[in-house]
Amino acid sequence: MANTANVALRLPPPFKEAAKALVKAGFDEYDDVGNNVLSFHPRNTHDAIVKLMRVGVVRVLGALDGPVKEVNHSVETYREIMRYFLDHPNMKTVDGSKFRIGTKAWKFFDGPDSDSRSEYEKELARCKKEGESPDPDYIEELEANLVPYSILQEEAMHSLAKAKDRLDNLVNAGALLEMARDYNEQAA
Description:
Helices cover about 70% and strands about 10% of the residues. It is mainly alpha-helical. The chain has a two-stranded antiparallel sheet. The chain has a two-stranded antiparallel sheet with strand order 3-4. Helix 2 crosses helix 3 (about 45-55), helix 2 (about 15-25) packs antiparallel against helix 9 and helix 4 (about 55-65) packs antiparallel against helix 9 (about 155-185).
């Protein structure tokens, strides 16, 4: 550990700055199946430097892409929701019915239960086609999964601010990692 500390003290400024930024921008990288491949949540600058030295700047820089895309998607979604509140200042809550089908905001509200909605609609269409009335117990069960979710204006505003801060931290860490990578390439 003392050897790591000695090396860390002699690191060039771009690496130290990148490590500081990574403390604020902890993230996880997942593979296509959803398994956690890299968990990067340093408690302090020293932990970040040690992890950077073990994993490598290029590997960490590449691993930032997924979290940046994910958080950017959240920011765009909350912006759509906040746009609704700005266009309708008297409204205190909103649900998915206020957004065009397929938009990020609509998916935020109606996406998770879209399988239930699809199954519900298929059952109603089947019954209509065959001229029979739907089983009331089955329809009631399907409708229970269609409970509309809504979000308060304050909650959406807070979530947007939090997502923007997280995105800023990730992008800043990425930029500083690129500087560290470039510094390393120039020194080689």
